[in-house]
Amino acid sequence: MDLAQRLRRQELVVVTGKGGVGKTTVSLALGSLLAAHGRRVVVLETDPRESLHQLADTAPSGGEIVRAGPRLSIQNVQPRSVLEELVHERVRIAALARRIVASPIFENFAAGAPGLKELAVLVHARRLVHGKRRRGDVVVLDAPATGHGVSLLAAPQLVTEVIGRGPVGEMAQELAALVADPERCAVVIVTLAEEMAVQEAIELIALLRQRVARRPDLVLVNGLYPPLPDRPPAPPPGAGGAMELWAARRAANERELERLGAAWKGARVELPLVPIERSPALVAALRSLLVGEGA
Amino acid sequence: MSFGLLDRRLLVVVGAGGVGKTTLAAALGLASARGGTATLVMTFDPSLRLKDALGVGAEAQAHETRVAVDAPAPLHVSLLDARATFDALVRRYAPDDAAATRIFENRFYRHLAGTLAGVLEYMAVERLFEVARDPRFARVILDTPPTRQALDFLEAPERITGFLDSGALRFARREWFDAEGRLKVTRLGPLGRGLAAWLDRLVGLDLLRDMVEFFQAFGPLYDGFHERATEVRRLLRGRQTGFLLVAGPGEERIPDTLFFARRLRDAGHDLRLIVVNQTHPQLPAGVVTPGLSLMAWLGERDRRGLDALGRLLGPGDPSASLPLLPETPTGLPALEALGHLLLERLPPAPRRK
Questions:
Q1: Looking at chain B from residue 162 to 201, which residues have their Cβ under 8 Å from any Cβ of chain A?
Q2: Which of A115, A239, A249 sits opposite B283 (nearest CB)?
Q3: ipTM of this predicted complex?
Q4: Which residue of B has its CA nearest to A109?
Q5: Which CATH architecture has domain A3-80+115-290?
Q6: Helix ranges, B133-191 (H)
Q7: Architecture of the CATH domain B4-94+112-158+239-344
Q8: Which positions ≥6 away from A235 have C-beta within 8 Å?
Q9: pLDDT averaged per 10 residues in sequence order, chain B, 353 residues
């Protein structure tokens, strides 16, 4: 069973991991792979500084859904604007809704209430694949960096514990069920084979078990230095340092892969460091590397 | 060795995730103590090996821990943990044990303190206030969470004072519930009953009761918090405070770096230096053998990044670069060597008009 098959049914794929490990690039590569297998895909970015559009070679999303290829769209979504939209839906009187949204109490509640922003992102993601305004079959969510990534997945449960009933409570219950269900929601952890990143990945796996009672579907190790050639060429004058650096970095990668392997026995994909700038070409390269992986 | 343009009483190390901020903060701390300055390194999330190397564990969450290093001045390390700091704060300020227990058992508090959003930053401000006036430390090096959160972190004092001034708290601290825990509907004006029913349907009155109880239990802390946040706000912009921005190599990181530099300046902070960290060495021209093509590409990529950044930065923006090391330094000698390497590479301080 390869990656595309493994993720063929889920309606939400949450891509998470430490900052700087290439989550956004991997999210788009995954989305594009699923689109090539016939699913209609929306890749969602939550970072207020948009960069997904550069990788998808489109105009900036600015909150809108932008077409990025056959069956593939991208969108940058801000929790704050989803929350405002929800207030407008609940409070039918437009003037009153505007006043609520502009009030300092809403401002502080939106910024500070535990789980609310995360919940809003999930609400939005679910709406993209369900109901009247459905825009696709699956959402690939480029989640905020770890810590926050777990908060995102744990948010529905957290909110149900605090708000047990009413429309907000019901919405949270629905989402908690979605996130807990491996048939509908997949979790992909992206990491580098470096000490801190692997440490966070291991902690993240434990936190997922603890707080959402589930395991990731896949751990994807990005940016590996390739193994040295069997018979390494004698380094030309002046290049010995680079050769040593390569050997040391590869050795560190292998050590960390082993540590990860001891903590995680499930599905794992390894992607090499590819000599291509962060660009649509890099996404295409990673996508072709992903084909047939994840078995 | 001289700290040159980084010679500030409070040095704040900022930058995106994974660029080596924590390692650099520790390295500079070590070099500082070796140079005879009593130093404290405050950090959030050091790797296990770095904690081992410094010889600090969970106890550093509770108080500053001295690092066993042979130096003319002491080096201390403290780890910031939101939950532990928050709990300690409650214990310190609660009028009695029963009041503290009430807060600890409050549903709202448990969830609020459990989710890191914002709380870590508030607590860091609290700790920063304490150590900034601690005479034991002649230099404080503050490591921060990765970029986005670092911005949150720097803006935390503003957010706290904004929140405290917004009236939201005064609103929440009114006596909304009577002794039996029923909402006093008369407080909501003529629409009282209807509004209460609407609120109950929407989120449940239990939650509101918990929130109000939480804010009331926290009552005694408000004024002090306001004062401290204002003080830290001033401290972060003071003459004795400087910022060190650590960036990753490669052209693709430049927009991030420039964005962050601009945000710092706009907010009135003194950005002393940009360090491009973890750069790959450039191979001599014309020696590209097949086996080394990836390393050649990486060296080339990082050189282009440095060149482009150099062109975009003005003469008033000092920058330096550090090489990618074969191993992340975790032992004390390797850390100290890294600290000294950075100090050696410091450009002269620019003349300010």
A1: 163, 166-168, 171, 200-201
A2: A239
A3: 0.86
A4: B168
A5: 3-Layer(aba) Sandwich (3.40)
A6: 147-165, 168-173
A7: 3-Layer(aba) Sandwich (3.40)
A8: A242, A243, B289, B292
A9: 92 86 93 96 76 78 85 91 72 77 75 53 74 91 70 68 62 63 61 64 66 67 74 89 92 84 90 95 75 88 92 86 88 92 89 55
